[in-house]
Amino acid sequence: MNKLYYGLTTILLIAAVYLMIIDNYLSSLAFFSLGVLYVIMGWQEKTNQPKIALFYFIIGLFIITVTYLGDFISGNIYLSTIEMYESN
After folding, report:
1. Is the separation of the CB atoms in 37 and 8 below 8 Å?
2. Residues 6+ away with beta carbon under 8 Å from 85
3. DSSP H helical segments within 1-88, as ranges?
4. Which of the two ends of the chain, N or C, has the fewest CB atoms closer than 10 A to its terminal CB?
5. 28 near 49, Cβ under 8 Å?
6. Which range marks the domain in which residue 12 is found?
7. Looking at the 3D structure of the chain, how many domains does it have?
């Protein structure tokens, strides 16, 4: 199961970085999914290796928080820009 998790995280990381390079809006979704996968990995590893599980869990929560806040802030900026153009 660990090889499957490592494979999925590698594929998601490569896809997210590629989408970020080509400036696609789906890159934030890929990073968010990567964070969720890290949280799931941390949850699965909590009984076997608690220190590694805590690392995965914290990294996953950090990725989820950063991508969510980034999308929220950029969405608010985008809406403010649209309102400014519509008012002129």
Report:
1. yes
2. none
3. 2-21, 26-45, 50-87
4. C
5. no
6. 2-87
7. 1
Contact 51, 16 (CB under 8 A): no
Which run of H or E residues covers position 1?
Answer: none
Residue 31: exposure state from Cβ atoms within 10 A (0-12, 13-18, ≥19) = buried
Secondary structure (3-state) at 22: coil
Contact call for residues 70 and 28 (beta carbons, < 8 A): yes
Distance CA 15, CA 78 (A): 25
The pTM of this model reads 0.80
